[in-house]
Amino acid sequence: MKKIIVILAAAAVLLSCQQKSKDSTTLKGSLKGLDLSEVEVMLGDVMDTVLTVTGGAFSVDLPVDLTRLGVIMAGSQQVPFVSDGTVLSAVLSSDPTESAVKSASPETSVNDKFYAYVNEENAFWERYEAEMARVSQSASSFSASEQAEREQELNDKATAEYRSMMLKTLDENKDNVLGLIPLQSLQSSLGLGPAQVDSIINTLSESLQQTGTVKELKEGLKSKLSTAEGSKFIDFTIVQDPSNPGKSTVKLSDYVGKGKYILVDFWASWCGPCRAEMPNLKDTYARFHGKSFDMLSVAVWDEPADTKKAAAELGISWNQIINAQKIPTDLYGIDGIPHIILFGPDGTILKRDLRGKEIPQTIAKYLGK
Questions:
Q1: Which of 43, 58, 317, 319 sits at a 20 to 30 Å CA gap from 186?
Q2: Residue 95 in contact with residue 63, Cβ under 8 Å?
Q3: Could you say which of 226, 249, 267 is where a domain stops?
Q4: Is the pLDDT of residue 37 over 90?
Q5: CA distances for 144 relative to 109, 149, 211, 279, angstroms
Q6: Residues 296, 319 contacting (CB under 8 angstroms)
Q7: What's the number of CA atoms in the CB half-sphere (13 Å) around residue 80?
Q8: Which residue, of 201, 226, 251, is where some domain finishes?
Q9: Residue 232 falls within a domain, yes or no?
Q10: Rounded CA separation 214/31 (Å)
């Protein structure tokens, strides 16, 4: 079973109150190549029960609940389903790619609609990976710059196709989980701004907007909107060493809003993309550091000892704030790192989520170099 299914099964998400054929869902399961005496069936905070497997099979009646994904725990497998009021048949196989839940009424089943979506997205990523592999295999026929251009063209094409697929899915499913999943993708992977995502959320059904998942998303958007480009920075205070708070307290305003352009990198020692960005940041610091420009690294979601060790290994020679944890990411609506922000001399947020070549290009533009 593809990774996306495992991820989605772990999240509680809302479905609309549609197509209720009865007030319970019959879930029947069978094992294929698995030697298990019991399985666990969870339906959010509504139900969590352990079922005995008899003769390689199990069965349970569940309340209809279209407000979340249920999950069957079979050994190390997590197999999702939607308790949609139909009769559901689960096959739990020793080969995870064969594990799935299907409805006896596919034409009206929200569960089957969910699985169709998962299969479509998995097929998309398989095509993309195959095309990227073909491009990589032909690398010897092109110069490095030509190869990079070909890979970028493929990536741009795939991004546009994926965005179109997500927007279509969202437009057709504004009252169920298939509207929520693309909404998350549009923000995290496809670069829609917070105002755009907020506008889309407002088109969702009222029941969907009242779920904890959407409420949490809306809270994050508030932080993003209040710290959007053009806004003044929001200060925060960090105690870098709790054992000695008097001498380890530092504020963002100790660096930002002091008359210099400040590039702030929110990162963590365990974050691969953060580490991959460091050579570019080192080059940027060497090129621009001076009277008008400086840099600051802010370690989030990380252990201070790990941060210090990684900073030494990576050669971070500019200013640092460690042990920031969730404080700045909550304030700035940062849900993925590295997240790199350029602040103006007066503390205005000039650019957010800078990466790669865009970093020195943006700084050069503001410094007139």
A1: 43
A2: no
A3: 226
A4: yes
A5: 50, 9, 48, 19
A6: yes
A7: 28
A8: 226
A9: no
A10: 35
How far, in Å, CA of 298 to CA of 331, rounded?
13
Mean pLDDT check: name the lowest of 10-24, 271-285, 352-366: 10-24
Instruction: Return the CATH number at 265.
Output: 3.40.30.10
Domain region containing 12: 1-226
Half-sphere exposure of 48 (CA within 13 A, CB side): 2
Annotate the chain with three-state secondary structure. Answer: CCHHHHHHHCCCCCCCCCCCCCCEEEEEEEEECCCCCEEEEEECCCEEEEEECECCEEEEEEECEEEEEEEEEECCEEEEEEECCCEEEEEEECCHHHCEEEECCCCCCHHHHHHHHHHHHHHHHHHHHHHHHHHHHCHHHCCHHHHHHHHHHHHHHHHHHHHHHHHHHHHHCCCCHHHHHHHHHHHHCCCCCHHHHHHHHCCCCHHHHCCHHHHHHHHHHHHHHHCCCCCECCCCEEECCCCCHHHHEEEHHHCCCCCCEEEEEEECCCCHHHHHHHHHHHHHHHHHCCCCEEEEEEECCCCHHHHHHHHHHHCCCCEEECCCCCHHHHHHCCCCCCEEEEECCCCEEEECCCCCCHHHHHHHHHHCC
Provide the pLDDT for residue 190: 64
> Tokens 């079973």 sit at which residue?
1
Asked if the peptide bond before residue 338 counts as cis, ω within 30 degrees of 0, the response is yes
What's the predicted TM-score (pTM) here?
Answer: 0.64
pLDDT digits (tens, 9 = 90+) for 78-113: 999 999 999 999 999 999 999 999 999 999 998 999
Same domain, 271 and 218: no
Residue 38 shares a structural domain with residue 174: yes
Flag whether 189 is in a domain. Answer: yes
Report the domain count for the chain.
2
User: Does residue 231 lie in a domain region?
Assistant: no
Mean pLDDT across 34-61: 94
